Amino acid sequence: MRRIKITLAYDGTDFYGWQVQPGLPTIQGTLQEVLAEIEGRPVHVIGSGRTDAGVHALAQVAAFDLENRIPVENLRRAMNRLLPDAIRVLEACEVEAHFHPRRDALWKTYEYRVWRGEICPPFQRRYVHHFPYPLDEQRLQKAAPLIEGEHDFTAFAAADEKDRLGGSKVRRIFCSRAFREGDLLTYRVTGSGFLKHMVRNIVGSLIEVGKGKLDEAGLAALLDCRVPGRAGPTAPACGLFLIEVRYP
Prior knowledge:
Order of helices and strands: EHEEHEEEHEEEHHE
Number of helices: 5
Structural class: alpha+beta
Largest sheet: 10 strands, mixed
Strand content: 25-35%
Helix content: 10-25%
Number of strands: 10
CATH superfamily of the largest domain: Pseudouridine synthase I, catalytic domain, C-terminal subdomain
CATH architecture of the largest domain: 2-Layer Sandwich
CATH topology of the largest domain: Alpha-Beta Plaits
């Protein structure tokens, strides 16, 4: 049995997120269908994390076990031939049997893109949150680094079926920055891990800061506030991208 690691990119618009859901198109489910065709038996795919419905990835990482001795380059080509155009396998390699895409990850980087122009170009609309309304971007950019450090992000987390396990919602954020390039306002965050809707709720809170409805003290108070759902409105999924997953 071989363990295969793949790096893939996908347009999440037409998928109901990463995780398999009966009767619905998902990234994990689509990969497993394709691999079952190649392997001739069911194949379970493990991802570095579960992106939500409508969220995109430039470099998601996943792993699975195969008995098939197909060379990894041929496997990559075969998968891309069978996968829908919205999912592409960028790289494939054989790794140690104990490799786990989620547990072995050192950190992940996400990017959230906000289109600030009055008119959103049609070819951008699936990949940005169009927000042409008044916003104090300097205030937003100044507040973004407040997210850095180790905090309890309960206030920024959506309800999750894993909550019943009582896991910690403390995460370490290494970098949190917002910057503007032309009509595109981008928020980029790197951390040890992320909770359900966490990045989208951080963005929603930063937009509230930019709108003048939340000050820096209010944003700081949300960190380590252990009351679920206290953060700002959840930003739409379409603007969120998983950019990188880093391993030792």
